[in-house]
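Assess this one:
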Amino acid sequence: MTSPDPDTGLLAPGWAGSPAASATADGAYLQALLDAEAALTRAQAALGLAPPEAATAVTEAADAGRFDVRSLAHRARGGGNPVIPLVADLTEAVGEEYGPYVHRGATSQDILDTATMLVAARTLDLLLADLDRVQRALARLAAEHRDTAMPGRTLTQHAVPTTFGLKAAGWRALVLDARDRVAAVRDSLPAQLGGAAGTLAAFTVYGTEDTQALTAAFAAELGLRAPLLPWHTLRTPIADLAGCLAFTAGALGKIAADALVLGRTEIAEIAEGSGGGSSAMPHKANPVRSTLIAAAARRAPQLAATLYGSLAAEDERPAGAWHAEWEPLRDLLRLVGGAARDAAELTEGLRVHADTMREHLDLTHGLIVSERLSAELAPVLGRARAKALLTDLAKRTYAEDLSLGELLAHEPELKDVDLGALTDPARYTGSAGALTDRALERP
């Protein structure tokens, strides 16, 4: 029996089958490593430091399909990273004449860091596309339900009325915040080129008079930023990735958290478009998309913490701090990419039960508008009298199973007050509509 592929995602349904899964797979990482090696040779050729034929030979050989990724993984244990065996295999594949131009002047961290930036850039492009799907779906929901009244909840209890449109607009605002952070980080991702200890010394031995020009040419070949300095132990790019990915997971997690609560059987104000089944209970339609997003949001901060911890890296190249980044960063890219995929499916198929929301506004027998009544009745009854009356009636609503409006109607002092309007929860949503409109103006 053949051994299983470690990238199948058997225990990771949140990212399995997502665009991010393909973009971060071992084969994709291997191709990014090869792309970095080929770009380095092309950059040197562009500056007259290597023959054009060498650039062509290395680029043609740099095809992940020609290399055994499993063998590379096993042999990586010898030197602690996969670049060392890959350079040997790529040099052999290029051939004796141009093999010496493979990896010339670079160190393993140059290639692996640059490949990581390539994998991150390619994954963030996919992530941004899914975040755009999410924000468009939420914009539609916010517009459609601008005036759909529902209970606002604070500390798990009914507070005052709000609208589902404002809730969806709030979700969208978080997604747009995430999008902006991801886009900024995507545009800032740098190539890495420093040589053995960040001095680019070996490149000068091979005839490079302007190492800044070489770094710029290398970055341009890959569509990455040219760094001001080699960043072997200056890990701002990794920290920035950690931050934007953890924030995105949390932003999507907020949507999932609300969806899980509002979709409970007892509440049922919204529902996923297509729930998942249960192995034991045929009647179940589980909120699978929300569940997977929530799981990603819980894991992401700890993964980001590991990456932030690696900022404290000793010397010019560290032992352990760099190595500790590789798996958590890939996990973060996968988790958040999968969560964005699931969030797009969730929001595009979300079912909103406006009638149920309206029914729930009456669960507190009208007490959900007590704040409004306190303010409106104070000029009529006096502040102290209004407070005392509402406190007494609040107790009686449950004891007598009557609504607050019905009890108020028996108060002679209020015979000229339009209690129907004052006690209608749908007419006490404040500036929710205007706030929703304002939020939707953000592109």
Remarks:
- The chain has a mean pLDDT of 95.
- Strands lie at 149-154, 157-163, 270-271, 351-352.
